Amino acid sequence: MELHGKEKFNSLYYKRLFEGIREFKANEYIPRQQFFEELGKKQNPHTLFIGCSDSRVVPNLITQTFPGELFVVRNIANLVPHYKRHSDTYLATTSAIEFAVNQMNVSNIVVCGHSNCGGCAALYQDKELKNLPHTKKWMELAHPVKKIVEQKIAKNKITLEERTLFTEQLNVVEQMNHLLKYSYIKKRVKEGKLNVMGWYYHIDTGEIYNYDRNLKRFIRIE
């Protein structure tokens, strides 16, 4: 039976996944079998990477790190829920943060935003979110960012054209601030045991900018 159109398209990517597994085994696992055998016994990540679920943002690729180095949390728009000692919401992200810091004892936390972020764009697309109720609820975490941006526009401090970049970068800063309100994170930062960083990744140029809390701006990593 010959496949056509969408069925053929889906079949090609279905096969690509399985081909990728075979390529991994032959080209990555077998040449580094001892490394993976040791990795299978334990993990000791040095960094918690909180990034967007966007398919174009690949943490190990942009940091050139090996398996076992990054403890990764990915969600729409790289959001960090507000700290609550006891909570029954947004547990997927908060539990991962708690585990990475208190159990894995990571030395760094990176919040990484990026250009052309669909999550950040969704803040201004109420109609588009009508049929995405769970996404709409999740994006409530970024409403403070939207409010600040709209205030800036109202005061003519930024244009509508500048809104996208400002939203994406401000969102990174806001999520860093959320992290620093987690009591166990705040304590470790104060003791010099933990670094909290904010990055902004330009997908089209490959450039990554680090947020300087003293200068209050993003500086390109050279």
Protein described:
This is Carbonic anhydrase. Belongs to the beta-class carbonic anhydrase family. Helix 7 crosses helix 8. The protein folds into 2 domains: 42 residues; 178 residues, Beta-carbonic Anhydrase, Chain A (3-Layer(aba) Sandwich). With 222 residues, it is of the alpha/beta class. A 6-stranded mixed beta sheet has the order 2-1-3-4-5-6, covered by helices on one side. Strand 4 and strand 5 form a beta hairpin. The mean pLDDT is 94. The longest helix is centred in the N-terminal third of the chain and has 25 residues. The protein is built from 9 helices and 6 strands, in the order ααβαβαβαααααβββ.
Biggest beta sheet attributes: 6 strands, mixed
Gap between N and C termini:
54 Å
| SSE class | alpha/beta
* Structure summary, number of beta strands: 6
Q: Could you name the CATH class of the largest domain?
A: Alpha Beta
What name is given to the CATH topology of the largest domain? Answer: Beta-carbonic Anhydrase, Chain A
Describe the protein's topology.
Layout: H1 5-29, H2 33-39, E1 47-52, H3 59-63, E2 70-75, H4 91-103, E3 108-114, H5 118-122, H6 133-138, H7 143-154, H8 163-179, H9 183-190, E4 195-201, E5 208-212, E6 217-220
Helix pairs in contact: 7-8
